[in-house]
Amino acid sequence: MTSERAGNSSAEEPERTTGISPEPSSDLRSQEAAREKLGQPPLDEDSLLLVFGSEEAHRAVEWCQSNCPRSDIFESRLEDGTKLKEEGNVMVKGGQWEDATGRYLAALYQVDFSIGQQWQLTNEHQHLLDTIKLSILNNLCLAYLHREDAERARKAADLALKSVTTIDRMAKETDGLQPVPRETLGKIYYRRAKAHYSLRDYDKAYADAKDAHEFCPSDTAVKRLMSEAQRLLKKEEEKSTRMWRSSAKKMFPESQQSVTTEGTVEKPSSDNA
């Protein structure tokens, strides 16, 4: 089957696992236009790679053009994406986090189909595509975390969860297809929680860690992160409360005294009774 195959078994258009914002910025459009003038092929505006920045995206594309050109055949692209992901996994085991990131981005490029191409896929093929995409994004998130790039790690996890939504919807609509395993969901939420924690967004870190704990209740790392995020969240709330009270006292220094004075009622003496 090629990427142009028709015959979607669902009347509803498959959910696209695009970037955080559906519309690219004007700066991004300008960068892509400049690359086109230099003879470098621009990426589609809905490309998943652009979520991680134009430079990261084009390094992956250029590497693929030299080492693993993208095929027009659907199955070949899935095979190449899986192969590149496995190469990234080997690099992870060797602690080569930067190289692994590049390989995962190259793998993502292979399985990055346009909205129009995905609209023509059957539920079975959409499910398979997003399953591979989910695995790549989950590992990419891990690589970015080890490189202390929390913002890109968060974006990878966000995209992974979009694929989760698509996979689960395909499984619900089509007999024989399976939803995302609970353990995989636990990993995604845990990694996004770590990204939020590094970004000091403790509210979201706690929420994601709590979700991760629901899927992996016996995981000690998840429990530890949830507890620490909750502790820091409470600390921030207490600090905000103290600051608010301090500001209120400065803004209304006489308010409490006025209320006390105005609220006092003179008790009548027994002589007037």
UniProtKB/TrEMBL annotation:
EC number(s) given by UniProt: 5.2.1.8
Keyword check for Signal: no
Compositional bias ranges of the Polar residues kind: 1-11, 18-28, 254-263
Keyword Isomerase among UniProt keywords: yes
Catalytic activity, reaction form: [protein]-peptidylproline (omega=180) = [protein]-peptidylproline (omega=0)
Signal peptide residue numbers: none
One MF term in the entry's GO annotations: peptidyl-prolyl cis-trans isomerase activity
Keywords attached to this entry: Isomerase, Rotamase
Basic and acidic residues bias locations: 29-38, 264-273
SMART domains xref list: TPR (SM00028)
Sequence segments annotated as region (Disordered): 1-40, 234-273
Protein name per its UniProtKB record: peptidylprolyl isomerase
